[in-house]
Design goal:
Layout: E1 20-24, E2 30-34, H1 35-41, E3 53-54, H2 60-63, E4 71-72, E5 76-85, E6 88-95, E7 101-107, E8 116-117, H3 118-127, E9 138-143, E10 150-155, E11 159-160, H4 161-167, H5 174-193, E12 196-197, E13 206-208, E14 214-216, E15 223-224, H6 244-247, H7 256-271, H8 281-292, H9 339-348, H10 359-363
Parallel strand pairs: 4-9
Antiparallel strand pairs: 1-2, 3-8, 5-6, 6-7, 7-10, 9-10, 11-13, 12-15, 13-14
Helix pairs in contact: 5-7, 7-9
Length: 391
């Protein structure tokens, strides 16, 4: 049997019940927390109705050690609004002392009665503990005049990848796509090695700085996972980037859901448009079958045991037509893909999550060794800054 098709093994570093983990307080100091406290942050999403928020802004300081000793947001000058997401607004700000530019994400609190939302607590707690060049870095957490206003101060990147794709005049070259994909896989491998699922990878959640460095951002849906796996919330992941096991109602899922999203992003960088554009979950699955072929029990054991599999009439498409979605003319509206690139994309978009390639294995794929090799990030083409106010 091809070793790449064998059931994969999980990382050896498995969390233990009494294991001590480390996180970082808002002023950058390390602090130890016990596993049961850490588990509070990775509590089964399905129970959020019974513990929806950390209550009352008047007691947030006691209940959230990460906020202890935080500086005031007044240390930053707010320059312009960048965007508003599901879990908070983002501003461009300047450190008054150093003049350095940062992104300030205001954590959305619905109201004082409901208190600090669990999604925001997870995002803060996960991000302050991560350190990787391709994961957005949180410098500190700052507060307003009272704890009703809480901000994450993050490194600033000049470009939103979705806006870059929408506005670029020429497609990325093969070497540039390889560089971006290599960086994305490196960041995802780091997250998975540290037992973090992002659960919403898409081009609009990727940033690019003026040095060509890609940053994974927006961890509002991220969560810690453990072995053995537990049932997690559905739906997660934006529809166009959502893995087939999620669409078919899998109650437990693995880091393979992030890998599927990476495959979709890889195709989008080459085509400058999304690969699967369904308006509903059924249509999304149909788009997959049309391009990748219709799955069956032979290539995906356990397919028909998924909750929604028997509710859908599968349109039979026996052939994989993925290669037809790419142009051989590199100067056209799309960038071509080599046979090795297509092989890697198919491994990222493998139906069976147990056979889907892992991030670290993908980094070792021969696609990155063929000519042209990944361009150095500093040599990436440049773009007008998309996150700066036009006024």
């Amino acid at each position: 049997m091809d070793p790449r098709c064998q059931k994969r093994t999980r990382p050896e570093k498995r969390p233990r019940e009494n294991e001590i983990k480390h996180t970082t307080t808002c002023n950058g100091n390390k602090k130890s927390i016990k596993q049961d406290e850490w588990n509070q942050l990775s509590h089964d999403d399905n129970n959020r109705e019974t513990q929806p928020n950390v209550h009352s802004s008047s007691t947030l300081g006691k209940q959230l050690p990460v906020l202890t000793g935080c500086r005031s947001v007044d240390n930053y000058e707010r320059l312009n609004f960048i965007e508003e997401g599901t879990y908070g607004r983002v501003f461009r700000g300047r450190d008054i002392q150093t003049n350095k530019i940062y992104a300030l994400k205001e954590i959305k609190l619905n109201n004082e009665v409901e208190g600090f939302p669990l999604t925001a607590l997870r995002e803060v707690s996960i991000l302050v503990s991560l350190r990787h060049p391709n994961v957005v870095h949180v410098r500190e957490v700052v507060v307003g005049s009272n704890l009703n206003k809480i901000y994450m101060v993050m490194e600033y990147a000049q470009h939103d990848m979705k806006k870059v794709l929408d506005n670029m005049k020429h497609p990325f070259s093969q070497a540039e796509v390889k560089s971006l994909l290599q960086q994305l896989l490196s960041g995802v491998a780091y997250l998975h090695d540290n037992w973090v699922l992002h659960r919403d990878l898409k081009t609009s959640n990727l940033l690019l700085d003026d040095q060509g460095i890609l940053k994974i951002c927006d961890f509002g849906l991220a969560r810690l996972y453990s072995d053995p796996l537990k049932p997690y919330t559905q739906p997660v992941v934006t529809l166009w980037y959502r893995a087939p096991e999620l669409l078919l109602g899998a109650k437990t899922y693995t880091p393979a859901i992030d890998i599927w999203s990476v495959g979709c992003i890889f195709a989008e960088w080459l085509r400058r448009k999304t690969l699967f554009e369904g308006r509903t979950e059924i249509e999304q699955l149909t788009k997959m079958w049309e391009i990748l072929g219709t799955p069956n029990e032979e290539i995906w054991p356990g397919l028909y045991q998924l909750p929604n599999a028997n509710k859908i009439k599968f349109i039979q498409q026996p052939y994989n037509r993925l290669s037809q979605r790419f142009d051989n003319n590199i100067y056209g509206s799309q960038t071509s893909v080599t046979k090795l690139g297509l092989d890697l994309m198919n491994k990222l978009l493998t139906y069976d999550p147990e056979k889907r390639i892992q991030a670290q294995d993908a980094l070792n794929h021969p696609y990155f060794e063929e000519i042209p090799k990944p361009v150095d990030p500093s040599l990436m083409q440049t773009f007008p800054e998309t996150n700066k106010s036009p006024y």
